[in-house]
Specification:
Chain lengths: 486, 343
């Protein structure tokens, strides 16, 4: 919550009149137009592609479903700014709204695909069959019944897409498409701690809250669970018949664009590293990336544990409030959190300014929810009675926890640890602002090479980033498979 | 079971903490600054700063550590840090950032012997910092897209509608903002505002000089405003980013012929005044200036009688406008660019 306050205070320091003048200008209108059209276009396209691909994979007899499932989650292993580098290095002059929508859609549609596919796989087809028997055709059935059932998954996916778009810096800066986040970093570059930057951050924060609210409103209070007893059946798969070839072409095309292009582009440039202007020094960048990611993941997981425990075991108003606040903070773009921490460090903790602890703190603020989700589930899965049993057998409360419950919770907690680790190792925006002098991570080293369009020097960093995030695909696929029925 | 896991986690964390502190063999400071070393805040290019720092260490035995940054943000950062700033010396690529620090009253006067070595045109009237190198504004163009006789006579002519969509610049960077400050001084606020409006509507904005030059080389833009040394450096290598391009100099004391002065200053708050002054003296000495010629830097030398790289046209032949580098204003430029919607 602190970031919110700090940014608001900095923004209003100059008095409401100046703040108003800074907000009410054509540049802000332009940024707003760009940001909103990007969110709307990419959101729509991601919804169409995500739902379409999920339906083809889960509900039709399309050959190779397992393969496609991997292919449509794999884009998440390529950070968006690496993806836009891949496209720009392949297609000269690739830029603007069109380019931005294409790249961000290809990077983010898996956020829709993943939950929708999981839901399609597990929902009872009974409702849809009822609609068919009442005279609706297959298309109208899908639109009126299927989509309505998918609503929570679709909205959740779209929320993620929108929040990522608001926070995206690297991909859009590279495609010369200015949004609030890129403009804030430009301002920072020019004036270090600029009021104008904080005012823009305030507007950006407003957008993030708007997106969150819209999602809550759209989710509504509809009931999505099955009514009545009886076990749910596995849904049947529609035969595609003559449509098999076009469907294969469509999924194949999407896979080529989303996975093939970045793989091919990075691969080609990897073979040309000899042409690099700046020498490529992977070693130190890999070391500092891994070091920061390990410490940040550890800190985040440990910090999350007590709150997750409270949420899973003693769900009080306070615990719920804590949860919501952390979600809100993490929906803030990295740039806002970073600016706030800079202001705090300079104002109140000067010795910490430009040191690793501040950066680690930023990572923790940004990525707590990722650890929260899995840790909470892990804690909830361990019956509290086990602890009671251990205590009845003579263990003290701490010992009972450490010997019996903690080991059982470790697996889920480790998954959270891994998620945070991957997120940190590919984080760019906050790292650019907060990294201690002399510390280059893979993401910032990649960034400095690619912003000079030194593609050959950027490629090894890009490849390393992809390798680091690859386990994410596996983790997500696994969790998608285990998702219980609604 | 648990002790082993705990041990593992502890090892991992320890290793991580240890690793994140590791550095390379450059002069760049990693993590905490070492109080014993002379601290340089450098917004100059890394290769140049390192070459100067190493040669200075070899000659004087004074150890040097460097923090790197960009002109504007580093200048503002020093002002923010105030009296507590760990910086002893500040090096910039352009003068406006130095002026920011000077106007905050944070610079000490440069030793007279140092200033006497430097050509008078590269010394500000306040004598609180000195020129250490210089760079010239140029227009890089792609002859297959625009012929030499179609090129604008003045940088101001780029605002002409006939060039709409054909030119580009790295408007977000401090380099370009220094050029704008020259335009502001030669042409006045009104003309500058109109020119920036044209830039906003007619030109493509790239991330930096190299990206601008590459865009011209690849035919995405016919002309781009950059500094000369990016082009000469690429020409000396494989010409991968400039092979299809040529340079156009505006000359005639046009604001587009602006020669930007890279500055060096000593912080008043520094406890190492003597060493810091020796560093500036070294950089402006014949040995320091020779590095500009020998290290593929391609920036101009500013010491009296010191030769620049032979590939470059002489500064006199550039016919730059007569501007006191001290009076170049950063804030006014940023305000104008903000108004024009560029920032």
């Amino acid at each position: 919550m602190l970031p919110l306050l700090v940014v608001a205070v900095t923004a209003l320091q100059s008095g409401p009149a100046e703040a108003f003048a800074l907000v009410w200008r054509p540049r802000v209108a332009e940024l707003l137009r760009n940001t909103v059209s990007l969110v709307v276009l990419t959101g729509t396209l991601s919804a169409v592609l995500g739902v379409g691909a999920a339906w083809l994979v889960e509900r039709t007899a399309l050959p190779g479903a397992g393969l496609w499932r991997v292919a449509f989650v794999a884009p998440l292993a390529v950070p968006a700014f690496v993806n836009s580098f891949a496209w720009a290095a392949l297609v000269p002059g690739f830029s603007g709204l069109g380019g931005a929508v294409l790249v961000t859609t290809l990077s983010y549609f898996p956020f829709v695909f993943l939950p929708v596919a999981a839901l399609l796989r597990s929902t009872d087809p009974g409702l849809e069959e009822a609609a068919r028997s009442l005279g609706l055709g297959p298309v109208r059935t899908f639109l009126r019944v299927g989509l309505a059932q998918l609503r929570p998954a679709l909205l959740g996916g779209l929320l993620l897409v929108a929040l990522h778009l608001l926070a995206e810096f690297g991909a859009l800066e590279m495609l010369r498409f200015p949004t609030f986040t890129t403009a804030i970093l430009d301002q920072y570059e020019v004036a270090f701690d600029s009021r104008s930057g904080s005012v823009l951050a305030l507007v950006l924060m407003g957008l993030a809250v708007t997106v969150l609210t819209l999602e809550m409103l759209a989710r509504g209070r509809t009931r999505h669970a099955r009514v009545g007893a009886g076990s749910a059946r596995r849904p049947t798969r529609a035969r595609l018949g003559a449509l098999t070839v076009p469907a294969l072409l469509a999924t194949g095309g999407l896979a080529v664009l989303a996975v093939g292009v970045p793989a091919w582009s990075i691969g080609t440039w990897l073979t040309r590293t000899g042409e690099a202007y700046e020498p490529v020094v992977l070693g130190p960048a890999v070391r500092s990336t891994l070091g920061l990611a390990l410490v940040a993941a550890l800190v985040t997981t440990v910090a999350t544990f007590p709150a997750a425990w409270l949420l899973a075991r003693r769900r009080s108003r306070f615990a719920v409030l804590v949860e919501r606040v952390t979600y809100l903070a993490s929906s803030l773009p990295g740039v806002v959190v970073a600016l706030a921490l800079i202001a705090l460090a300079i104002g109140y903790a000067r010795p910490l300014y430009q040191t690793a602890p501040v950066l680690v703190l930023a990572y923790a603020v940004l990525f707590v929810p990722r650890a929260m989700v899995t840790t909470r589930a892990a804690i909830a899965a361990v019956p509290p009675e086990l602890g009671d049993a251990a205590r009845a057998l003579g263990d003290g409360p701490l010992r009972a926890f450490a010997r019996v419950q903690l080991p059982l919770m470790l697996r889920g907690t480790m998954a959270g640890f891994a998620l945070v680790f991957i997120a940190v190792s590919t984080e760019l925006t906050a790292t650019l602002l907060l990294a201690p002098t002399g510390t280059q991570t893979l993401a910032t080293a990649f960034w400095s090479a690619s912003s000079s369009l030194d593609y050959a020097a950027a490629a090894p960093y890009a490849a390393a980033l992809v390798v680091l995030s690859a386990p994410l695909t596996w983790l997500l696929l696994r969790s998608g498979r285990e998702e219980p029925a609604t | 079971m648990i002790p082993r896991r705990t041990l593992l986690l502890a090892t991992v964390a320890g290793a991580a903490l240890g690793l994140s502190g590791c550095g390379s063999d450059s002069l760049e400071a990693t993590g905490d600054l070492d109080d014993g070393k002379l601290t340089i805040y450098s917004a100059q290019h890394k290769n140049l700063t390192e070459a100067w720092g190493r040669a200075f260490q070899d000659e004087t035995g004074i150890e040097v550590q460097v923090r790197y940054g960009n002109d504007s943000s580093m200048g503002a950062q020093i002002v923010q840090e105030g009296q507590a700033s760990p910086a002893d010396v500040f090096l910039t690529e352009n003068s406006p950032a130095m002026t920011t620090v000077q106007n905050a009253g944070m610079l000490a006067e440069v030793a007279p012997a140092t200033l006497e070595r430097v050509e008078p045109r590269f010394v500000p009237s306040t004598k609180e910092w000195t020129g250490i190198a210089a760079r010239s504004t140029v227009l890089v163009y792609n002859p297959s897209m625009i012929s030499e006789d179609e090129l604008p006579a003045s940088i101001m002519d780029l605002a002409d509608p006939r060039y709409a969509g054909q030119w580009s610049a790295a408007a977000g960077g401090a380099d370009f903002q220094a050029i704008v400050s020259a335009i502001l001084q030669v042409e006045g606020a009104e003309q500058t505002e109109a020119w920036l409006k044209a830039l906003k509507s007619d030109a493509k904005v790239y991330q930096n000089n190299i990206a601008t030059m590459k865009a011209v080389n690849e035919g995405q833009s016919a002309m781009g405003i950059i500094y000369h040394y990016y082009w000469y450096r690429d020409q000396a290598l494989q010409k991968a980013s400039s092979g299809n391009t040529a340079l156009h100099y505006f000359r005639n004391e046009d604001p587009g012929a602006f020669v930007s002065v890279s500055g060096g200053g000593v912080l008043r708050s520094s406890a190492k005044q003597d060493q810091a002054q020796r560093f500036l003296a070294f950089v402006t000495s014949p040995a320091g200036q020779e590095i500009l010629r020998t290290e593929d830097v391609k920036e101009y030398a500013v010491g009296t009688g010191d030769a620049s790289d032979p590939a470059l046209p002489t500064i006199a032949s550039l016919q730059p406008p007569d501007i006191d580098p001290f009076t170049l204003e950063q804030q006014k430029v940023i305000d104008l660019m903000t108004q024009a919607g560029l920032l």
